[in-house]
Fold these 3 entries.
Entry 1:
Amino acid sequence: MSATAHGTRTAVAGRTEPAERPPTEDNFPHVTPASPSRAPVCRADRFTAVEPGEPWTNDPYDRALRAGRGPLYLRRLTPHAHGAAELLPLDVERFCAPPDAADTGVLSRCTGPVLDIGCGPGRIVAALAARGIPALGVDLSPAAVARTRRLGGTALRRSVFDRLPGEGRWETALLMDGNIGIGGDPAALLARLRDLLRPGGCLLAEASPQDVDERLMARVEDAEGRHGRPFPWARAGTTALLRAARHGLDPHRPVDRRRPALPATSPSDHRVRCHEPHA
């Protein structure tokens, strides 16, 4: 799921410095790899009533994934600056297609086991499985999880903020397709991923091609104006994502003590690098 506009995509990678940990098999999670549209024109007061259920589950997004096509949008519900688009296109066809050149560049940087947050219809998870790299996708959408499994990937219907398998033992975490927006607070999301990664683990996150840093309320909407429930979302360009990484990956930032935190290291031990894969 993504609010990434068409064009060049930027991936940001953050890595934490290794800390001492007994080299036992329990340090690693066990994952078995499985073998141009027109925008809505109806007025806001004529939209279809909000549908039941949670966002991304029983709404137009879920139905679009089952069909494998859009058009589909995020509608901005938060007041925005003059000139900012009210509808952000979701590229359902790309989500459901095989990995493109930019995806292949990300795949080449993945070391298993890999956790794909907001895996969508599973093109990345399935491609990793085909390469023999252990990978798990997590997504709120039943259609996303079902499609990932049909492609040969492993997926769970779960939020990244729920308890997940192998916490603190994932080698690589992925935030593709604009999923830095999950939860509406990139720094909090990255802090959660710090809990999930092993010491020395790597985060690969895709930034918006625009230089944006935005928190908003949004909902998924199709071309007929049918929509799901509102939810918090965020958009972050490269500069904003790097700033969130410095804050979210800071080991001295307060963490949720109900979840295990990684051993503390110096903030200077966190290395962040960027690249712009060609679509």
Note: Confidence is low (pLDDT under 50) at residues 2-11, 16-28, 32-50, 252-279.
Entry 2:
Amino acid sequence: MMNEHDLGIIRNAVFPYMDKPITCIGDSFTHGAAARPDIPSYVSRMAKYLGTTPRNTGIGGATIAKGEDDRDFIGDQIRDVKNQAVITIFGGTNDFAANRLIGTVKDPVDKVTTFCGALKYMITNLAKQNPQVKFLLITPAKSNHAEWRLYDDDGNLRKNQLGNTFVDYVNAVKAVGSYFAIPVLDIFNAGNYNPYLFPNLSLEGLHPNAAGHERLAKTIAFKINSL
């Protein structure tokens, strides 16, 4: 029979962040209620897989890069995020739709008008506010929504007004993650969330329904527990 010490070792291995503070930053995928108020997002659903209830700062329609339109800037969510064990940043769909500049990993950390610069701004400032934190970047997911469709009728990747494809924003997340040696969860390429293949997981080809959020919760929580 296992003693309390052995059980504690197992508990810590299964739930390394039990009762520890975690914050999830993002857009409507993270917020959840922005799409359907009656469907809890993946964030609250992760509690049973993490042993702690993460804080959700997501805002529907928000973008990684700051623009001149009325969309919220995801970077504004970081101001009071302090002393966290884990912070996730999940976004990019709205940047594609809103024609945000991508930039490069060479962009300075104060250049928040580019996707790469804004990610660097968030990460560097969050690192100062959370000196012991572990980050997880999450790429945007595939979309079959009328306004955010991944492919055109001929099966080619659609481009926004800047000539960027959805994949360009996915690759930008991965490039910034590599720049900072931060793990990236590639939901786009390997998240088992694809409205083309599994329309039963989505409300309208973009936002997850209850089953979609539950699938994302398991996938993201598993990655967090491995950090």
Note: The chain has a mean pLDDT of 92.
Entry 3:
Amino acid sequence: MMVRRILMAAMLVALCGCQAAERPVGETQNTSEASVEDVAENATDVVDASQNAAGSADNAANAASNASDAEIWCGAARAYLSATDCRALEIQRDSLEQGVAAFNPPRSMMRGEATRVVLAIGPKAEESEVAAAAGGDASAVRVAPVRIGRYMTASLSGSAFTIAPVGNPQRDLGLSASEQWEWDVTPTREGAQTLQVRIETFAQDGRGNRTRIRLDQSPPVSVDVQVTDRERRSQTIGTIKGDVEDTTGLLKSLGAWLLALAGVIGALALVIWRIKGLGKKPEEGDGGSEDDKPVPPAGG
């Protein structure tokens, strides 16, 4: 910038010198001093004007830079960021892919026993494949919308469970839009309990590294699970079995008692019948048999 200003001043001085050489000698001598002063003043004015213009340009550039670096409230990050950084985050957020998440843990578990559960995500166009990747009964799978980016995290929670993630919950999907998370879940209380999974998508910086700025958080996906205590269940089954055996023995005893009662009733009926037969009088007009008639005396 400084070199340009010096060259411009030199050109103006040379131009004025040429004009002075073309004038008559007398006039040149009379006006030489004035011409030199005018040239110097003009050169100074040009230099000042150039400096002022350069200063204005620098001020404008600084103002634009300051405006871009000024912190504003950024909705994409839910924080105060520079306008440049905020715009970059908005572009990342708007470019997230629409996808689905499938979660299908067993609906019944045993207290104290670990069960592997799976969460699968993928493009919305591949919903059936994503649901199948979650495993379990296809008719019971829970599917929810999710926005897919490069950096994603899935977390599983439940107050009545001990939960151990299999692998790092923070994933770098790269160019892929599909991923799976797994946990080993151990129920600690019996009864109706709830498992809840949550999925988050994070931004990346200018170098492609993961940041702590969250671009999207999906609504939680909840599933109710019935937890049974094995010992209590065994006790219940044993009690039922004992009751059945007791009932069976009682029925057998009752059957024998009924048979004995039937025999007693039959014998009693026979005795009564015989008693009634012995006490019965002969009917009138009944002459009896020929053998029972009296024999007349001889010669009568």
Note: Residues 25-29 have pLDDT under 50 and may be disordered.
